[in-house]
Known about the structure:
The complex is a heterodimer. By secondary structure, chain A is α+β, with helices and mostly antiparallel strands.
Amino acid sequence: MSLRISEAVIWQETGEGVSLYHTETGDFHSLNDTGSRIWKLVASDGEREPVMFKLSREFAGSSSAMSRQIVADVRDFIGTMIEQGLIEEVPSEKAEKAAT
Amino acid sequence: MSRAVVLGGGFAGVLAAAVLARHADEVVVVEGDRYPSGPRPRRGLPQSHHSHVLVAGGARALEALLPGTVGALLAHGAQLRGLPGDALILTADGWFRRMRTDAHLISCTRGLLDEMVRRRALASGAVTVWEDTRALGLLGDAARVGGVAVSRRGAPPETVRADLVVDATGRRSASPRWLAEIGVRDVEETTVATGLAYATRLYRAPAGLAAAIPAIMLHPGPGPGRPARGATLFPVEDGRWVVTLTGTRGGEPPTDEQGFAAFARALRDPLVADLMAEATPLGLIRPYRDTVNRRRFFERARLPAGFAVIGDAAVAVNPVHSHGMSVAARCALRLGEELTRHGGIGPALFPGLQSALAAEAEQSWRMAVEADGEQAGAGTGERAEGTGAGAAERAGAGTGRDGAPRREPNAFEREIRTRLAQAKLSNPRIAAGLFAAQTLLSDDTATDRPEIARVLSGRPEPLLTSEEAIGQYPGLAAWLRSRLAAATP
Protein backbone atom coordinates (compact mmCIF):
# COMPACT_ATOMS: atom_id res chain seq x y z
CA MET A 1 0.00 0.00 0.00
CA SER A 2 1.19 3.50 -0.79
CA LEU A 3 0.77 6.47 1.47
CA ARG A 4 -0.57 9.92 0.76
CA ILE A 5 -1.44 13.00 2.77
CA SER A 6 -5.21 13.17 3.28
CA GLU A 7 -6.97 15.72 1.09
CA ALA A 8 -8.65 16.95 4.28
CA VAL A 9 -5.30 18.13 5.63
CA ILE A 10 -3.84 21.58 5.11
CA TRP A 11 -0.21 21.63 6.15
CA GLN A 12 2.71 23.98 6.18
CA GLU A 13 6.34 23.85 7.14
CA THR A 14 7.00 26.42 9.83
CA GLY A 15 10.02 27.38 11.89
CA GLU A 16 8.81 24.92 14.54
CA GLY A 17 8.39 21.97 12.17
CA VAL A 18 5.34 20.89 10.24
CA SER A 19 1.95 22.25 11.33
CA LEU A 20 -1.23 20.53 10.22
CA TYR A 21 -4.91 21.38 10.16
CA HIS A 22 -7.47 18.63 9.65
CA THR A 23 -10.47 20.27 8.01
CA GLU A 24 -12.86 17.43 8.96
CA THR A 25 -12.07 17.30 12.66
CA GLY A 26 -11.03 20.94 13.05
CA ASP A 27 -7.92 19.79 14.92
CA PHE A 28 -4.50 21.36 14.70
CA HIS A 29 -1.33 19.30 15.06
CA SER A 30 2.30 20.27 15.35
CA LEU A 31 5.04 17.80 14.56
CA ASN A 32 8.49 17.93 16.06
CA ASP A 33 11.66 17.72 13.97
CA THR A 34 11.57 13.99 13.49
CA GLY A 35 7.84 13.83 12.87
CA SER A 36 8.22 16.66 10.38
CA ARG A 37 11.00 14.82 8.58
CA ILE A 38 8.89 11.67 8.26
CA TRP A 39 5.89 13.71 7.15
CA LYS A 40 7.84 15.40 4.38
CA LEU A 41 9.26 12.09 3.20
CA VAL A 42 5.76 10.60 3.08
CA ALA A 43 4.64 13.63 1.08
CA SER A 44 7.50 13.28 -1.41
CA ASP A 45 7.99 9.50 -1.62
CA GLY A 46 4.54 8.09 -0.83
CA GLU A 47 5.88 4.70 0.33
CA ARG A 48 6.94 3.32 3.71
CA GLU A 49 10.16 1.68 2.61
CA PRO A 50 11.93 4.72 1.13
CA VAL A 51 11.02 6.70 4.23
CA MET A 52 12.51 4.06 6.52
CA PHE A 53 15.53 3.63 4.29
CA LYS A 54 16.35 7.33 4.14
CA LEU A 55 15.88 7.90 7.86
CA SER A 56 17.90 4.83 8.71
CA ARG A 57 20.80 6.03 6.56
CA GLU A 58 20.50 9.48 7.99
CA PHE A 59 20.48 8.56 11.67
CA ALA A 60 21.49 4.94 12.25
CA GLY A 61 24.77 4.80 10.39
CA SER A 62 26.03 1.24 10.72
CA SER A 63 24.11 0.45 13.90
CA SER A 64 21.59 -2.28 13.13
CA ALA A 65 19.94 -1.87 16.55
CA MET A 66 19.39 1.82 15.86
CA SER A 67 18.15 0.98 12.41
CA ARG A 68 15.54 -1.43 13.85
CA GLN A 69 14.45 1.23 16.31
CA ILE A 70 14.01 3.77 13.54
CA VAL A 71 11.98 1.35 11.45
CA ALA A 72 9.72 0.64 14.43
CA ASP A 73 9.33 4.32 15.22
CA VAL A 74 8.47 5.22 11.64
CA ARG A 75 5.87 2.43 11.56
CA ASP A 76 4.36 3.72 14.81
CA PHE A 77 4.30 7.28 13.60
CA ILE A 78 2.71 6.44 10.28
CA GLY A 79 0.22 4.16 12.02
CA THR A 80 -0.81 6.99 14.32
CA MET A 81 -1.13 9.41 11.42
CA ILE A 82 -3.34 6.90 9.57
CA GLU A 83 -5.49 6.39 12.68
CA GLN A 84 -5.99 10.13 12.94
CA GLY A 85 -6.94 10.42 9.29
CA LEU A 86 -3.97 12.60 8.47
CA ILE A 87 -2.31 10.09 6.17
CA GLU A 88 -4.20 7.61 3.99
CA GLU A 89 -3.23 4.24 2.60
CA VAL A 90 -3.97 3.73 -1.07
CA PRO A 91 -3.27 0.77 -3.35
CA SER A 92 0.21 1.17 -4.78
CA GLU A 93 0.73 1.57 -8.52
CA LYS A 94 2.85 -1.60 -8.63
CA ALA A 95 0.12 -3.63 -6.98
CA GLU A 96 -2.49 -2.21 -9.29
CA LYS A 97 -0.41 -3.03 -12.35
CA ALA A 98 0.19 -6.57 -11.10
CA ALA A 99 -3.56 -7.01 -10.58
CA THR A 100 -4.29 -6.07 -14.16
CA MET B 1 -60.90 15.85 35.76
CA SER B 2 -57.26 16.70 35.03
CA ARG B 3 -55.73 20.02 35.83
CA ALA B 4 -52.38 21.57 34.91
CA VAL B 5 -50.98 24.64 36.61
CA VAL B 6 -48.38 26.80 34.89
CA LEU B 7 -46.40 29.13 37.12
CA GLY B 8 -45.54 32.28 35.19
CA GLY B 9 -47.59 33.80 32.42
CA GLY B 10 -44.82 35.15 30.25
CA PHE B 11 -43.86 33.92 26.80
CA ALA B 12 -42.80 30.41 27.92
CA GLY B 13 -45.67 30.01 30.36
CA VAL B 14 -48.38 31.02 27.94
CA LEU B 15 -47.06 28.70 25.24
CA ALA B 16 -46.84 25.82 27.73
CA ALA B 17 -50.41 26.56 28.81
CA ALA B 18 -51.63 26.51 25.20
CA VAL B 19 -50.02 23.11 24.73
CA LEU B 20 -51.37 21.73 28.02
CA ALA B 21 -54.88 22.90 27.17
CA ARG B 22 -54.94 20.21 24.47
CA HIS B 23 -54.31 17.50 27.06
CA ALA B 24 -55.87 18.67 30.33
CA ASP B 25 -59.46 19.47 31.25
CA GLU B 26 -58.39 22.64 32.99
CA VAL B 27 -55.25 24.80 32.76
CA VAL B 28 -54.52 27.59 35.21
CA VAL B 29 -51.73 30.12 34.67
CA VAL B 30 -50.48 31.76 37.86
CA GLU B 31 -49.05 35.18 37.01
CA GLY B 32 -47.66 37.56 39.59
CA ASP B 33 -48.06 40.59 37.38
CA ARG B 34 -50.96 42.19 35.52
CA TYR B 35 -50.91 42.06 31.76
CA PRO B 36 -50.75 45.42 30.02
CA SER B 37 -53.81 46.42 28.06
CA GLY B 38 -51.97 46.34 24.75
CA PRO B 39 -48.58 45.72 23.15
CA ARG B 40 -46.61 47.49 25.86
CA PRO B 41 -43.80 46.49 28.22
CA ARG B 42 -44.92 44.58 31.29
CA ARG B 43 -44.16 46.09 34.68
CA GLY B 44 -42.70 42.92 36.17
CA LEU B 45 -40.51 42.20 33.17
CA PRO B 46 -37.62 44.68 33.07
CA GLN B 47 -36.18 42.85 30.09
CA SER B 48 -39.25 43.84 28.06
CA HIS B 49 -37.75 47.28 27.36
CA HIS B 50 -34.81 45.67 25.61
CA SER B 51 -34.21 44.19 22.21
CA HIS B 52 -36.02 40.94 21.43
CA VAL B 53 -35.73 38.80 18.38
CA LEU B 54 -37.18 35.47 17.48
CA VAL B 55 -34.66 33.45 15.51
CA ALA B 56 -35.78 31.22 12.63
CA GLY B 57 -35.86 27.99 14.66
CA GLY B 58 -37.97 29.67 17.31
CA ALA B 59 -40.30 31.22 14.75
CA ARG B 60 -40.79 27.80 13.21
CA ALA B 61 -41.66 26.32 16.61
CA LEU B 62 -44.02 29.20 17.40
CA GLU B 63 -45.80 28.72 14.11
CA ALA B 64 -46.20 25.00 14.80
CA LEU B 65 -47.64 25.78 18.24
CA LEU B 66 -49.91 28.64 17.25
CA PRO B 67 -50.34 28.70 13.47
CA GLY B 68 -50.68 32.17 12.03
CA THR B 69 -48.81 33.94 14.82
CA VAL B 70 -45.73 34.78 12.77
CA GLY B 71 -47.91 36.18 10.00
CA ALA B 72 -49.83 38.24 12.55
CA LEU B 73 -46.60 39.61 13.99
CA LEU B 74 -45.39 40.65 10.56
CA ALA B 75 -48.80 42.17 9.79
CA HIS B 76 -48.46 44.26 12.95
CA GLY B 77 -45.09 45.60 11.90
CA ALA B 78 -42.57 43.05 13.16
CA GLN B 79 -39.53 43.06 10.90
CA LEU B 80 -38.07 39.96 9.25
CA ARG B 81 -34.40 40.11 8.34
CA GLY B 82 -32.44 37.38 6.54
CA LEU B 83 -29.07 36.39 7.95
CA PRO B 84 -26.84 37.66 6.64
CA GLY B 85 -28.86 38.74 3.59
CA ASP B 86 -30.63 41.59 5.34
CA ALA B 87 -28.16 42.21 8.13
CA LEU B 88 -25.12 44.42 8.14
CA ILE B 89 -22.75 42.61 10.47
CA LEU B 90 -19.25 43.69 11.46
CA THR B 91 -17.52 40.82 13.23
CA ALA B 92 -14.09 40.83 14.82
CA ASP B 93 -12.83 39.52 11.48
CA GLY B 94 -14.61 41.92 9.16
CA TRP B 95 -17.93 42.69 7.47
CA PHE B 96 -20.25 39.98 6.22
CA ARG B 97 -21.12 39.97 2.57
CA ARG B 98 -24.78 39.92 1.70
CA MET B 99 -25.77 36.28 1.19
CA ARG B 100 -29.13 34.56 1.07
CA THR B 101 -29.62 31.67 3.48
CA ASP B 102 -32.63 30.10 5.20
CA ALA B 103 -31.64 31.75 8.47
CA HIS B 104 -33.50 34.83 9.62
CA LEU B 105 -34.74 36.68 12.64
CA ILE B 106 -37.95 38.48 13.46
CA SER B 107 -37.57 41.69 15.37
CA CYS B 108 -40.30 43.50 17.29
CA THR B 109 -40.88 44.85 20.76
CA ARG B 110 -41.43 42.34 23.50
CA GLY B 111 -44.78 44.00 24.15
CA LEU B 112 -46.04 43.21 20.65
CA LEU B 113 -44.72 39.67 20.73
CA ASP B 114 -46.29 38.89 24.09
CA GLU B 115 -49.58 40.47 23.07
CA MET B 116 -49.84 38.49 19.83
CA VAL B 117 -48.84 35.22 21.45
CA ARG B 118 -51.07 35.71 24.47
CA ARG B 119 -54.06 36.62 22.31
CA ARG B 120 -53.74 33.40 20.34
CA ALA B 121 -52.71 31.12 23.15
CA LEU B 122 -55.59 32.17 25.36
CA ALA B 123 -58.17 32.62 22.59
CA SER B 124 -59.91 29.28 23.06
CA GLY B 125 -60.85 30.08 26.64
CA ALA B 126 -59.41 26.74 27.77
CA VAL B 127 -56.75 28.50 29.85
CA THR B 128 -57.58 30.54 32.94
CA VAL B 129 -55.08 33.21 33.98
CA TRP B 130 -54.85 34.31 37.59
CA GLU B 131 -53.13 37.68 37.44
CA ASP B 132 -51.72 39.37 40.54
CA THR B 133 -51.17 35.95 42.02
CA ARG B 134 -47.94 34.76 43.61
CA ALA B 135 -46.81 31.16 43.75
CA LEU B 136 -45.68 30.30 47.28
CA GLY B 137 -44.50 26.72 46.95
CA LEU B 138 -45.21 23.19 45.86
CA LEU B 139 -47.59 20.76 47.50
CA GLY B 140 -46.55 17.15 47.79
CA ASP B 141 -43.35 15.31 48.55
CA ALA B 142 -40.17 14.15 46.90
CA ALA B 143 -42.07 11.50 44.98
CA ARG B 144 -45.08 13.47 43.73
CA VAL B 145 -46.11 17.08 43.35
CA GLY B 146 -49.84 17.40 43.73
CA GLY B 147 -50.37 21.12 43.38
CA VAL B 148 -49.21 24.55 44.43
CA ALA B 149 -49.79 27.08 47.17
CA VAL B 150 -50.63 30.53 45.84
CA SER B 151 -51.57 33.90 47.14
CA ARG B 152 -53.92 36.14 45.20
CA ARG B 153 -53.57 39.80 45.97
CA GLY B 154 -55.44 40.69 49.13
CA ALA B 155 -56.53 37.12 49.80
CA PRO B 156 -55.16 34.50 52.20
CA PRO B 157 -52.94 31.75 50.78
CA GLU B 158 -54.79 28.93 49.11
CA THR B 159 -53.86 25.59 47.61
CA VAL B 160 -54.55 24.45 44.09
CA ARG B 161 -54.55 20.76 43.25
CA ALA B 162 -52.82 19.86 39.99
CA ASP B 163 -51.85 16.75 38.07
CA LEU B 164 -48.95 18.62 36.53
CA VAL B 165 -47.20 21.80 37.67
CA VAL B 166 -44.94 23.54 35.14
CA ASP B 167 -42.56 26.23 36.35
CA ALA B 168 -42.14 28.94 33.72
CA THR B 169 -41.20 31.77 36.07
CA GLY B 170 -37.97 32.62 34.30
CA ARG B 171 -34.52 33.50 35.58
CA ARG B 172 -35.75 34.26 39.08
CA SER B 173 -37.45 30.90 39.51
CA ALA B 174 -37.72 29.69 43.09
CA SER B 175 -38.03 26.04 42.06
CA PRO B 176 -34.76 24.88 43.69
CA ARG B 177 -36.04 26.26 47.01
CA TRP B 178 -39.56 24.94 46.54
CA LEU B 179 -38.19 21.50 45.69
CA ALA B 180 -35.91 21.56 48.73
CA GLU B 181 -38.94 22.31 50.90
CA ILE B 182 -40.55 19.04 49.79
CA GLY B 183 -37.36 17.02 50.11
CA VAL B 184 -35.67 17.29 46.71
CA ARG B 185 -32.30 18.79 47.43
CA ASP B 186 -30.00 17.86 44.61
CA VAL B 187 -30.65 20.36 41.83
CA GLU B 188 -27.23 21.15 40.40
CA GLU B 189 -26.69 24.66 39.11
CA THR B 190 -23.92 26.05 36.98
CA THR B 191 -23.30 29.61 35.92
CA VAL B 192 -21.00 31.11 33.32
CA ALA B 193 -20.41 34.78 33.89
CA THR B 194 -20.19 37.09 30.91
CA GLY B 195 -19.10 40.34 32.53
CA LEU B 196 -21.42 41.93 30.00
CA ALA B 197 -23.78 44.82 30.55
CA TYR B 198 -25.94 46.54 28.02
CA ALA B 199 -28.13 49.59 27.65
CA THR B 200 -31.05 50.02 25.30
CA ARG B 201 -33.04 52.85 23.86
CA LEU B 202 -35.96 53.02 21.51
CA TYR B 203 -35.94 55.58 18.67
CA ARG B 204 -38.38 56.94 16.14
CA ALA B 205 -36.61 56.37 12.82
CA PRO B 206 -36.13 59.16 10.30
CA ALA B 207 -38.84 59.22 7.66
CA GLY B 208 -38.16 56.87 4.79
CA LEU B 209 -35.51 54.90 6.57
CA ALA B 210 -37.51 53.19 9.30
CA ALA B 211 -38.05 49.73 7.93
CA ALA B 212 -35.80 50.09 4.90
CA ILE B 213 -32.58 49.36 6.69
CA PRO B 214 -30.94 46.05 7.50
CA ALA B 215 -30.50 44.82 11.03
CA ILE B 216 -27.14 46.17 12.16
CA MET B 217 -24.71 44.35 14.42
CA LEU B 218 -21.33 45.73 15.35
CA HIS B 219 -19.39 43.10 17.26
CA PRO B 220 -16.44 43.89 19.50
CA GLY B 221 -13.11 43.98 17.75
CA PRO B 222 -10.28 41.52 18.33
CA GLY B 223 -7.85 42.10 21.11
CA PRO B 224 -7.71 40.41 24.49
CA GLY B 225 -7.38 42.43 27.65
CA ARG B 226 -9.67 45.26 26.59
CA PRO B 227 -13.37 45.63 27.31
CA ALA B 228 -15.41 44.28 24.41
CA ARG B 229 -17.82 46.92 23.13
CA GLY B 230 -20.50 46.51 20.50
CA ALA B 231 -23.93 47.59 19.33
CA THR B 232 -27.04 46.37 17.58
CA LEU B 233 -29.80 48.24 15.85
CA PHE B 234 -32.96 46.35 15.01
CA PRO B 235 -35.92 47.88 13.19
CA VAL B 236 -39.19 47.11 15.00
CA GLU B 237 -42.86 47.92 14.48
CA ASP B 238 -44.31 51.42 14.12
CA GLY B 239 -41.30 52.97 12.41
CA ARG B 240 -39.03 52.51 15.40
CA TRP B 241 -35.58 51.18 16.00
CA VAL B 242 -34.24 49.57 19.13
CA VAL B 243 -30.58 50.32 19.76
CA THR B 244 -28.57 48.28 22.24
CA LEU B 245 -25.01 49.11 23.26
CA THR B 246 -23.00 46.35 24.94
CA GLY B 247 -19.79 46.36 26.92
CA THR B 248 -17.87 44.01 29.15
CA ARG B 249 -16.43 44.89 32.56
CA GLY B 250 -14.74 48.26 32.52
CA GLY B 251 -16.44 49.14 29.25
CA GLU B 252 -20.11 49.15 30.24
CA PRO B 253 -22.28 51.50 28.20
CA PRO B 254 -23.36 54.64 30.07
CA THR B 255 -27.00 55.52 30.53
CA ASP B 256 -26.70 59.29 30.30
CA GLU B 257 -27.54 61.08 27.08
CA GLN B 258 -24.05 62.24 26.12
CA GLY B 259 -22.27 59.12 27.32
CA PHE B 260 -24.61 56.86 25.36
CA ALA B 261 -24.01 58.78 22.14
CA ALA B 262 -20.25 58.98 22.73
CA PHE B 263 -20.06 55.24 23.38
CA ALA B 264 -21.75 54.51 20.05
CA ARG B 265 -19.50 57.03 18.29
CA ALA B 266 -16.36 55.35 19.62
CA LEU B 267 -17.24 51.90 18.28
CA ARG B 268 -15.30 50.36 15.42
CA ASP B 269 -17.72 51.88 12.94
CA PRO B 270 -19.82 55.01 13.52
CA LEU B 271 -22.86 53.72 11.60
CA VAL B 272 -25.07 53.14 14.64
CA ALA B 273 -24.05 56.53 16.08
CA ASP B 274 -24.91 58.19 12.74
CA LEU B 275 -28.34 56.59 12.68
CA MET B 276 -28.99 57.45 16.35
CA ALA B 277 -28.06 61.06 15.66
CA GLU B 278 -30.78 61.39 13.02
CA ALA B 279 -33.45 59.47 14.94
CA THR B 280 -35.73 60.73 17.71
CA PRO B 281 -35.18 59.14 21.12
CA LEU B 282 -38.29 57.62 22.69
CA GLY B 283 -38.05 57.27 26.44
CA LEU B 284 -35.20 56.43 28.74
CA ILE B 285 -31.91 54.64 28.23
CA ARG B 286 -32.36 51.43 30.14
CA PRO B 287 -29.49 49.38 31.54
CA TYR B 288 -29.43 45.61 31.96
CA ARG B 289 -26.83 43.52 33.73
CA ASP B 290 -28.30 40.11 34.44
CA THR B 291 -26.51 38.45 31.56
CA VAL B 292 -25.02 35.46 33.34
CA ASN B 293 -25.61 32.09 31.70
CA ARG B 294 -27.35 29.97 34.32
CA ARG B 295 -28.40 26.37 34.01
CA ARG B 296 -30.22 24.35 36.60
CA PHE B 297 -29.92 20.68 35.84
CA PHE B 298 -33.41 19.62 36.93
CA GLU B 299 -33.13 16.68 34.58
CA ARG B 300 -30.31 15.26 36.70
CA ALA B 301 -32.27 15.52 39.93
CA ARG B 302 -34.83 12.96 41.03
CA LEU B 303 -37.73 15.22 40.21
CA PRO B 304 -41.07 14.31 41.71
CA ALA B 305 -43.74 13.11 39.31
CA GLY B 306 -46.11 15.86 38.27
CA PHE B 307 -43.52 18.61 38.02
CA ALA B 308 -41.48 20.12 35.19
CA VAL B 309 -39.50 23.29 34.51
CA ILE B 310 -39.46 25.12 31.21
CA GLY B 311 -37.75 28.15 29.66
CA ASP B 312 -35.32 30.42 31.48
CA ALA B 313 -36.25 28.87 34.83
CA ALA B 314 -34.17 25.87 33.74
CA VAL B 315 -31.72 27.18 31.15
CA ALA B 316 -31.16 30.93 30.87
CA VAL B 317 -28.51 32.07 28.43
CA ASN B 318 -27.02 35.52 28.06
CA PRO B 319 -29.77 37.53 26.32
CA VAL B 320 -27.36 38.89 23.71
CA HIS B 321 -27.51 35.49 22.03
CA SER B 322 -31.22 36.09 21.31
CA HIS B 323 -32.19 32.50 22.03
CA GLY B 324 -34.41 32.76 25.10
CA MET B 325 -37.81 33.00 23.47
CA SER B 326 -36.90 30.65 20.66
CA VAL B 327 -35.76 27.96 23.07
CA ALA B 328 -38.93 28.49 25.11
CA ALA B 329 -41.02 27.92 21.98
CA ARG B 330 -39.07 24.79 21.12
CA CYS B 331 -39.50 23.49 24.68
CA ALA B 332 -43.26 24.09 24.53
CA LEU B 333 -43.42 22.24 21.26
CA ARG B 334 -41.49 19.37 22.79
CA LEU B 335 -43.82 19.38 25.80
CA GLY B 336 -46.70 18.87 23.40
CA GLU B 337 -44.89 16.04 21.62
CA GLU B 338 -44.15 14.29 24.91
CA LEU B 339 -47.77 14.67 26.03
CA THR B 340 -48.99 13.17 22.77
CA ARG B 341 -46.44 10.36 22.86
CA HIS B 342 -47.34 9.34 26.41
CA GLY B 343 -51.09 9.69 26.11
CA GLY B 344 -51.41 12.95 28.03
CA ILE B 345 -50.71 13.81 31.65
CA GLY B 346 -50.00 10.59 33.49
CA PRO B 347 -47.32 8.38 35.01
CA ALA B 348 -45.79 7.49 31.63
CA LEU B 349 -45.08 11.16 30.90
CA PHE B 350 -43.11 12.12 33.95
CA PRO B 351 -39.88 10.05 34.02
CA GLY B 352 -38.38 11.42 30.81
CA LEU B 353 -40.14 14.76 30.54
CA GLN B 354 -37.51 17.03 32.07
CA SER B 355 -34.72 15.42 30.05
CA ALA B 356 -36.72 15.97 26.88
CA LEU B 357 -37.24 19.64 27.74
CA ALA B 358 -33.58 20.09 28.64
CA ALA B 359 -32.54 18.56 25.32
CA GLU B 360 -34.30 21.39 23.50
CA ALA B 361 -32.14 23.94 25.31
CA GLU B 362 -28.89 22.03 24.97
CA GLN B 363 -27.64 23.53 21.71
CA SER B 364 -28.34 27.09 22.81
CA TRP B 365 -26.62 26.50 26.14
CA ARG B 366 -23.57 24.95 24.51
CA MET B 367 -23.19 27.76 21.99
CA ALA B 368 -23.66 30.50 24.58
CA VAL B 369 -21.23 29.01 27.05
CA GLU B 370 -18.65 28.43 24.35
CA ALA B 371 -18.95 32.01 23.08
CA ASP B 372 -19.07 33.66 26.50
CA GLY B 373 -16.39 31.39 27.92
CA GLU B 374 -14.06 32.60 25.20
CA GLN B 375 -15.05 36.19 25.77
CA ALA B 376 -14.53 35.84 29.51
CA GLY B 377 -11.15 34.29 28.75
CA ALA B 378 -10.18 37.54 27.01
CA GLY B 379 -10.26 35.99 23.61
CA THR B 380 -7.79 33.25 24.32
CA GLY B 381 -10.25 30.41 24.21
CA GLU B 382 -8.87 28.87 21.09
CA ARG B 383 -8.40 25.18 21.13
CA ALA B 384 -4.83 24.08 20.92
CA GLU B 385 -4.14 20.44 20.41
CA GLY B 386 -0.95 18.54 20.17
CA THR B 387 -0.60 15.26 18.42
CA GLY B 388 -0.36 11.83 19.84
CA ALA B 389 1.97 10.75 17.10
CA GLY B 390 4.94 9.07 18.72
CA ALA B 391 7.73 8.31 16.36
CA ALA B 392 11.40 8.70 17.13
CA GLU B 393 10.44 11.63 19.29
CA ARG B 394 7.07 12.51 20.62
CA ALA B 395 5.56 14.93 18.20
CA GLY B 396 3.56 17.89 19.30
CA ALA B 397 3.95 20.87 21.48
CA GLY B 398 3.24 19.35 24.82
CA THR B 399 -0.45 20.06 24.89
CA GLY B 400 -3.42 17.78 25.09
CA ARG B 401 -7.16 17.89 24.58
CA ASP B 402 -8.46 17.47 28.06
CA GLY B 403 -7.17 19.53 30.89
CA ALA B 404 -3.72 19.81 29.42
CA PRO B 405 -2.09 23.20 29.43
CA ARG B 406 -2.84 25.27 26.38
CA ARG B 407 -0.10 26.70 24.30
CA GLU B 408 -0.12 29.84 22.24
CA PRO B 409 -1.22 29.14 18.67
CA ASN B 410 1.63 29.33 16.19
CA ALA B 411 1.63 31.44 13.03
CA PHE B 412 0.13 28.61 10.98
CA GLU B 413 -2.78 28.18 13.39
CA ARG B 414 -3.39 31.88 13.51
CA GLU B 415 -3.43 32.08 9.74
CA ILE B 416 -5.82 29.12 9.40
CA ARG B 417 -8.13 30.53 12.06
CA THR B 418 -8.12 33.93 10.42
CA ARG B 419 -8.89 32.43 7.04
CA LEU B 420 -11.64 30.26 8.51
CA ALA B 421 -13.17 33.27 10.22
CA GLN B 422 -12.92 35.33 7.07
CA ALA B 423 -14.35 32.51 4.93
CA LYS B 424 -17.56 32.74 6.96
CA LEU B 425 -17.89 36.32 5.86
CA SER B 426 -18.04 35.57 2.17
CA ASN B 427 -18.70 31.89 1.52
CA PRO B 428 -22.44 31.16 1.14
CA ARG B 429 -22.21 27.50 2.18
CA ILE B 430 -20.15 28.18 5.27
CA ALA B 431 -22.29 31.18 6.22
CA ALA B 432 -25.46 29.13 5.72
CA GLY B 433 -24.19 26.48 8.14
CA LEU B 434 -23.12 29.07 10.69
CA PHE B 435 -26.41 30.96 10.68
CA ALA B 436 -28.51 27.80 10.57
CA ALA B 437 -26.91 26.79 13.86
CA GLN B 438 -27.11 30.28 15.35
CA THR B 439 -30.80 30.58 14.55
CA LEU B 440 -31.52 27.06 15.85
CA LEU B 441 -32.62 25.83 12.42
CA SER B 442 -30.02 23.12 12.60
CA ASP B 443 -28.58 21.42 15.63
CA ASP B 444 -25.61 20.34 13.62
CA THR B 445 -22.93 22.81 14.55
CA ALA B 446 -20.38 20.93 12.46
CA THR B 447 -19.17 23.15 9.71
CA ASP B 448 -19.21 22.25 6.05
CA ARG B 449 -15.78 20.57 6.13
CA PRO B 450 -15.36 19.82 2.41
CA GLU B 451 -16.14 23.46 1.69
CA ILE B 452 -13.63 24.54 4.31
CA ALA B 453 -10.95 22.39 2.71
CA ARG B 454 -11.79 23.95 -0.64
CA VAL B 455 -11.71 27.47 0.75
CA LEU B 456 -8.43 26.97 2.57
CA SER B 457 -6.82 25.59 -0.56
CA GLY B 458 -7.85 28.58 -2.68
CA ARG B 459 -7.25 32.30 -2.63
CA PRO B 460 -8.98 34.17 0.17
CA GLU B 461 -11.79 36.54 -0.73
CA PRO B 462 -10.82 40.15 -0.05
CA LEU B 463 -12.42 41.71 3.02
CA LEU B 464 -15.03 44.39 2.47
CA THR B 465 -14.28 47.95 3.46
CA SER B 466 -16.94 49.73 5.53
CA GLU B 467 -18.00 51.65 2.45
CA GLU B 468 -18.37 48.46 0.42
CA ALA B 469 -20.27 46.73 3.21
CA ILE B 470 -22.75 49.58 3.61
CA GLY B 471 -22.93 49.92 -0.17
CA GLN B 472 -24.57 46.47 -0.27
CA TYR B 473 -27.69 48.26 1.03
CA PRO B 474 -28.35 50.99 -1.53
CA GLY B 475 -31.07 52.72 0.51
CA LEU B 476 -28.85 53.05 3.54
CA ALA B 477 -25.82 54.07 1.48
CA ALA B 478 -27.85 56.75 -0.30
CA TRP B 479 -29.11 58.08 3.03
CA LEU B 480 -25.55 58.31 4.39
CA ARG B 481 -24.38 60.11 1.24
CA SER B 482 -27.21 62.63 1.45
CA ARG B 483 -26.43 63.19 5.14
CA LEU B 484 -22.81 63.84 4.29
CA ALA B 485 -23.79 66.17 1.44
CA ALA B 486 -26.06 68.12 3.76
CA ALA B 487 -23.26 68.52 6.28
CA THR B 488 -20.75 69.67 3.66
CA PRO B 489 -20.80 73.45 3.08
